[in-house]
Amino acid sequence: MSAELANQARSFLEEAGYDSDHLVANYAFTSRRDDGNLANDRADLVAFGGAPHTMRTACVSVVEPETAASRAVTVSRLRFLTAPLAIVGAGPSVELWSIRRHLEPEPFKTAPRAAWPDAFCGRLADLSPDTILEAKRGETQLEFVDVELGTWAERMTGFDYWFMASLTIPHALAGGLMAVVLAHPARGRRKLGLCLNCGYDLRASEERCPECGSPIAGAMLRSDGDPA
Question: Which one, of 36, 80, 26, lies nearest residue 56 by Cα?
Fold first, then answer.
């Protein structure tokens, strides 16, 4: 991301009410590829409504894809970050995108790069951390917030393989298996090598989760069963 866009985005988000400590550069998160594999992606800047910095507190992401052709893919992967809004650098323009589960994301506001903070300032109240977090929890309504996005992302990165298993085993057994998974979500994350706290892919990490900072205990990475 260009230094100019990064500085503008920081100033804009601080004006919207975000604490500088909750503006995280080069933030890593886990997404699921089309082939079903989990992979780590990064957003140039993410504004969080508070600590810890996880998908539940992510509010606004800022990215600048390298090419116009990669923009749609980049924005699509932001669904797994679950920040409802994305500020996207797009050549001579800057776009404001609503990040949703199933619909292809479309920018709902575009402005010239040199003037985008002024053009978007009319949305500052809607972009505040308190307002977006309330909308993510379903306590208020914003037209650009998909209240089910977080639940969808957690399911896609943590429980998808249980659904696939249910397609190949008897229905009664599948129902019982799914009940166990829903009752013990940590078990599903452990078997996939995901952080028990936030669901981040820990297979390439050591000591602490890069996303939420939780210690990586041996039990979190075990794939041969549950800890005693």
Answer: 80
Q: What does the domain layout of the chain look like in residue ranges?
A: 3-146, 159-221
pLDDT greater than 90 at residue 9 = yes
- Whether residue 72 contacts residue 79, with contact meaning beta carbons closer than 8 Å, is answered with no
Please give the CATH number for the structural domain made up of 3-146. 3.90.1570
Q: Which residue has the higher pLDDT, 100 or 175?
A: 100
pLDDT tens track for 62-101: 999 988 888 888 999 999 999 999 999 999 999 999 999 8
Phi, psi of 89 (to 5 degrees): -75, 130
Check: CB of residue 101 under 8 Å from CB of residue 78: no
Average pLDDT over residues 204-213: 75
Rounded distance between C-alpha atoms, residue 175 and residue 183, angstroms: 12
Q: What is the pTM of this model?
A: 0.69
- Cβ pair 163, 36 in contact under 8 A: no
Place of tokens 């969080």: 48
pLDDT over 60 (residue 188): no
